[in-house]
Amino acid sequence: QVQLVESGGGSVQAGGSARLSCTASGFTLHYYRHAWFRQVPGKEPETILCYDQREDTTVYADGKKDRFSISLDDAKNALYLEMKDLKAEDTAIYYCSTDLSLNPPHGCYLTAKKYDYWGQGTQVTVSS
């Protein structure tokens, strides 16, 4: 059974850093494309970045490159979202997602609807 489980959320002071984890089961992260999104209640999901593990390529949504980054631990079959210089407007539920389609064979998407599998989300609250 394919499953993604996020962890690492919580309360963070403005200006601080956080690392979110996304642990996968039922498949191997290494072969697919992934993305991190966030969502504030009542709003559409906002893209942070996507990652094509096969080419080790990251694509950032506008304005996200300076403070967000992704990494992957093959041994733990986990993705991580590193966040720094957090601001109050970063408060949201953060989701990891995966597209298990192998077609096209390269690249990743910044569009939420392209991803088939999502974790349950983890809340990040940034206080000033």
Q: In words, what does this structure look like?
A:
- Strands 2, 4, 5, 6, 9, 10 and 11 form a seven-stranded mixed sheet that branches. The chain has a four-stranded antiparallel sheet with strand order 1-3-8-7, with no helix packed on it.
- The relative contact order is 0.32.
- Helices cover 0% and strands 49% of the residues.
- The termini are far apart.
- The chain has strands at 3-7, 10-13, 18-25, 33-39, 46-52, 57-60, 68-73, 78-83, 92-99, 117-118, 122-127.
- It is globular and about 45 Å long.
- With 128 residues, it is mostly beta strands.
- Strand 4 and strand 5 (46-52) form a beta hairpin.
In short:
This protein has no helices and 11 strands.
Structural classification: mainly beta
Approximately how much helix is present in the residues?
under 10%
Order of helices and strands: EEEEEEEEEEE
Radius of gyration: 14 Å
Count the DSSP helices: 0
Reported for the largest beta sheet, the result is: 7 strands, mixed
Please count the beta strands (DSSP E, at least 2 residues each). Answer: 11
**Terminal CA distance:** 40 Å
What percent strand? over 45%
Name the average pLDDT. 95
pLDDT < 50 stretches: none
Overall 3D geometry? Answer: globular
